[in-house]
């Protein structure tokens, strides 16, 4: 009888050990799957052309680029300011009609309402997503973090073109920027005093510009 009980306990311990091992494996698998979701989603969206991401670095303007005057694409500009960030942030124009292959320059306006330097980073997206790969930025304030001194305003330029082979089914592209506050938490490193790293990252686009080259712009 005692041998039978000991056998049952041994069998139960083995079963518990197997179950524990399976649960640990399942937990690790789910943990790994959670990490893999974002890159898998990006890969799927890239393959389907629906992610809306645009180039993160400047592209060279093709030497032989010429506009296709037989058609136009409406480009709409949107800004998503951060409610917790003391910046006014908006496009200088809300939309314009652009010929594919035409190089266009416009800008976004920013004003720092704070009494200290605030550093912003704009993240772009284009919709519909299938049109994002045809929208090329030659220069963009989004390529670098943008320090803005207290009570200062700036026009941040954007130079872009739409590829000539953009599908004829795409009549409108919407370019939107979401603004993030990346100011260091330490006030000594933010108030009118940028370190070498911050200085190196200041874009040439921080100079005030006139809004030029806006053919067909709608204020």
TrEMBL record:
Family matches, as PANTHER family: CYTOCHROME C OXIDASE ASSEMBLY PROTEIN COX11, MITOCHONDRIAL-RELATED (PTHR21320:SF3), CYTOCHROME C OXIDASE ASSEMBLY PROTEIN COX11-RELATED (PTHR21320)
Annotated stretches, region: Disordered: 186-219
Source organism superkingdom: Bacteria
Listed GO MF terms: copper ion binding
Gene3D superfamilies for this protein: Ctag/Cox11 (2.60.370.10)
Keyword Transmembrane: yes
Family: Belongs to the COX11/CtaG family.
Residue intervals passing through the bilayer: 21-41
Keywords: Copper, Membrane, Signal-anchor, Transmembrane, Transmembrane helix
Subcellular location: Cell inner membrane
Entry annotated with the keyword Transmembrane helix: yes
Topological relation to the membrane, as annotated: Single-pass type II membrane protein
Cellular component GO terms held in the UniProt record: plasma membrane
Entry-linked Pfam families: CtaG_Cox11 (PF04442)
NCBIfam families tied to this protein: PRK05089.1
SUPFAM superfamilies named among the record's database cross-references: Ctag/Cox11 (SSF110111)
Protein name per its UniProtKB record: Cytochrome c oxidase assembly protein CtaG
Physiological role: Exerts its effect at some terminal stage of cytochrome c oxidase synthesis, probably by being involved in the insertion of the copper B into subunit I.
